[in-house]
Amino acid sequence: QHPDSMKSAGTMKVIVASALVAVGSALHLTNKTSQNLRTSSNATLVTKVDVGDEPKEVYRQVLSNFQNVQYFGEFHIGGQPIAGIFDTGSFELLVRSTRCSGCAHPTSPYDRSLSASYKENGTVTKHVFGSGPCESLKGYEDVSVGPLKSKGQAFWEIIRHQIQALDTAKFAAIVGIGPNFAYGNQDQTLLMSFGVKEFSVCLQKPSGSDGYLTWGKTVEPEHKEAKFAKARVIGKHHWVTRMHNISFNKPTGAHLENVPCMASGCAAIIDSGTSLIAAPGAALMQLSRQIQPIMEDCSNLHELPTLHFNIDGTDFALPPQAYVMRVTGAVLEADSIWDILFFKPKIRKINMCLPAFMQIDMNSQHGPVWILGMPFFRYYHTIFDRTNKVMHFALAGDNCEPLPFSNNGTHAVSKQALLAVSARAPKGPMEIEVHSLVPPTLSEQIDSADGKTIEL
Asked: CA 281, 285, 288, 290: dihedral to nearest 10 degrees?
């Protein structure tokens, strides 16, 4: 039974929906680095810094925004410019290829015949994503992102797939930037080949705005420790940490039975490749009992509560503008598009306001799996540190600049603080088109998750 408390005005049930592909990051410049800032021809920023084993150039890459659910940046493979999503939830480099004769190619695919640096391997494998499977052929190629270069990088050409979004997507590649090797694979990842031990991700808040991915260190360690929140990476393969007490209300008394991730907690993957927040169905049902009806026209957005959760001992919050979306575009989409919605609407409409969540039922060695995607990155500038196996979080400012996590020393953030840090913060929900939604890319895990415990 769907809870009445989670329904929109009228007869329509409130929907918990999903999306993929939001990536971005921001650059926080120390006094030492800001003097050397320059702009490149493709509107990215490059900064000279001295950071030990890191590349000498810290590269701020602009990620173009399509419908607020697909963020992509350019890289070169075999000298060919390719648009890709940069995904902290996966590990390998997959590229849509001219070998895929049955594929639609809305953007330019990779063509090995145009490359003098391509080397074949011949291994064929299946990658299974939340949005469907694909078959890929392994090879080696020269890859570059801005000034960062890797010769003979292992990659996979997509030769067949059943991922509907790829037929219309603005990207032709999934660039995995997870912290470690892929499952059962000892080929160096792109992060390893580039020598990048730290990078950051952030999305600008206004609808249609670009995101940023910054390759390299941009914040001094003492500043991160003093001003930002920190979470330990507990996964062997993913950027995953512990999360507790997810609630719209203070978790006390009888309310405790409706609070997900109490006691032993949950596993939270901080995933730039997922547009919304994904959670177990049972947890979403618990949250649905806490929240008042959401009006289809979003007229009560200002009355909705803040979503609270604890990440590795620090209290975080997301305002309604982060967890409510307005669905735009055509109503007569294929059933497979609407199937990604958790609570199915009785009537499909445009300009409906809905909670921006999706269902993903996985259990791991660290508990039930949650995925914090695009809404999180719009409000928290996130730094990923491979060397120390930690993540640092700052509030995201107007241009994704990292601001102190808390000004009161409590290591907790409020709804007012989240909205106050950006003069350009949207007053309403984020607008998305249904046909652009794609589920998370968790690669091989999806195929083996069926009721079993997966290793994160």
From this structure: -130
- Nearest by Cα to 80 from 143, 12, 146: 143
* Beta-sheet strands, E only, within 303-351: 307-311, 314-318, 324-328
Element (H, E) at 73: strand 70-77
What is the per-residue pLDDT across 11-26, written as a single tens digit (0 to 9) for each? Answer: 222 323 333 333 233 2
Q: What is the pLDDT of residues 352-371, one digit of tens each?
A: 888 888 888 889 999 999 99
- Looking at residue 270, its pLDDT comes to 96
Round to whole Å and give the CA distance between 209 and 71: 10
Instruction: Please check the confidence at residue 443 and state whether its pLDDT lies above 50.
Output: no
Strand pairing partners for 410? none
Report whether 356 contacts 324 (CB < 8 A): yes
pTM, entire model:
0.84
Gap between the Cα atoms of 19 and 269, Å rounded: 15
- End-to-end CA, the chain: 32
- Is 158 in contact with 97 (CB distance < 8 Å)? yes
Q: For residue 390, what are the CA distances in angstroms to 196, 215, 236, 270, 394?
A: 15, 16, 12, 12, 14
Cα–Cα–Cα angle for 13, 17, 20, rounded to 5 degrees: 170
Q: How many C-beta atoms lie closer than 10 Å to residue 20's C-beta?
A: 34
